[in-house]
Amino acid sequence: HWVGVVVLDVTERRRADEALMQGQRMEAIAKVAGGVAHEVNNMMTVITGFSGFLEGAMPIGDPRLADVAEIRKAADRAAGITRQLLAYSRQQLLQPRALALNQLVQELSGVLERLLGPEIELRLALAPQLPSVKADQAQLEQVLVNLTLNARDAMQGTGTLSIVTETVFLDDGYAQRYPGTNIPVGTYVRVMVSDTGQGMDAATRARLFEPFFTTKPPGQGTGLGLATVYGIIKQSGGFIWVYSEPGLGTTFKIYLPEVAEEAIPLDDSYMAPDVPGGVETILLAEDEPSVRRMVYRSLRGAGYRVLEAINGAEALQIAQREIQPIHLVISDLVMPVMGGRELGERLTRARPGIRLLYISGYTDDDVIRRGLLVPGSPFLQKPFEATALARKVREVLDGAPQLHGA
């Protein structure tokens, strides 16, 4: 009689299965979050717009101005939450460009030190000759700020936060350790953000990037900070892992693929406070009635002549009947009957030289992948206020001629 014993170490397999299940769950949550954020953004555009009209119509010293201010404050907070949801669901329209990550970290270090407070030390270990990465500067800054705030809370006022950058090469062996995550072989810039805080157990780590999940007491956090980080990194073509044990601190490892392009200097431009207007003719296509009314009133108040349409098809009909020049088309990106991209293509053929400005509550990966928005096209993210709309309209009208096409 013989007894056969086979011992298999299934640790890596279990980790891979857990990573795959977590990724699938987060993808499902992301789709729901993106849809909710899109609808909320439409409503926030209306609330911020019309409350601005009301505020502008009241005389200085009117006691009702305080009530309007509270409405706008609540709308701004709701808009901030939807922006975070869109970042998590990877449905924001980013403006990626080649960046020098070391320069970004160094220039942001002063802000991070102020966020940490006097009792927490910030240490930087930045590798020389780091390759460029392609990402949205503002979004990447938000990633570092969110991780810093999370670390500050975990360290409870005292400790050390370390930010380390280095170049790494990931081969097939690394990708095979994380099946289902689609990690291409190649060179990456790795950013490690480590704290000396209280750390996390396995149950907390498993839900860390889920929106609205937080370990903070009620009223002290939305649970969207790390969810936003996850979405920004994924939409930037990278990935992020977290390593943590109770009492041993936490390390976030971010991997962003290198690009051969030379890094573009960081943007520190300042927007002038004036609100410009004009007398040009603008064709507005927006299927949400309340948003359309808000935009129409904003543009008319700035002096423009405005033609309204409930979708792209009606906008095309109006353009065909209109004898006078149409200088600008403002169109929602996704509308029934005819969307903004098709409308823009048809109008540029019929009226060469016409300018386009797209607005939308979100632009998801599928829309970009199918080419419904030409990369680099002028775009204004909902929600927006009348002043932001006026500046963007003037910017598009006064800018260089647009190059239309797929």
Return the string of H and E elements.
HHEHEEHEHEHHEEEHEHEHEHEH
Uncertain segments are 268-273
Q: Tally the helices: what do you get? A: 12
Helix content: 40-55%
Task: Indicate the mean pLDDT.
Answer: 80
Number of separate strands = 12
What does this molecule look like?
By secondary structure, the protein is an alpha/beta fold. It is built from 12 helices and 12 strands. Strand 10 (328-332), helix 10 and strand 11 form a beta-alpha-beta unit. Helix 9 (312-321) runs parallel beside helix 10 (340-350). The N and C termini lie far apart (74 Å). Residues 268-273 have low confidence and may be disordered.
Features:
12 strands, 12 helices, globular
Question: Secondary-structure blueprint of this entry?
Answer:
Blueprint lengths: L10 H47 L6 H25 L8 E3 L1 H16 L3 E7 L5 E4 L1 H19 L3 E12 L1 H5 L9 E10 L6 H6 L17 H11 L3 E6 L5 E10 L21 E5 L3 H13 L3 E5 L2 H10 L6 E5 L7 H11 L4 E6 L4 H5 L9 E3 L4 H13 L8
Parallel strand pairs: 2-4, 8-9, 8-10, 10-11, 11-12
Antiparallel strand pairs: 1-3, 3-7, 4-5, 5-7, 6-7
Question: What's the gist of this structure?
Answer:
The protein is an alpha/beta fold and 406 residues long.
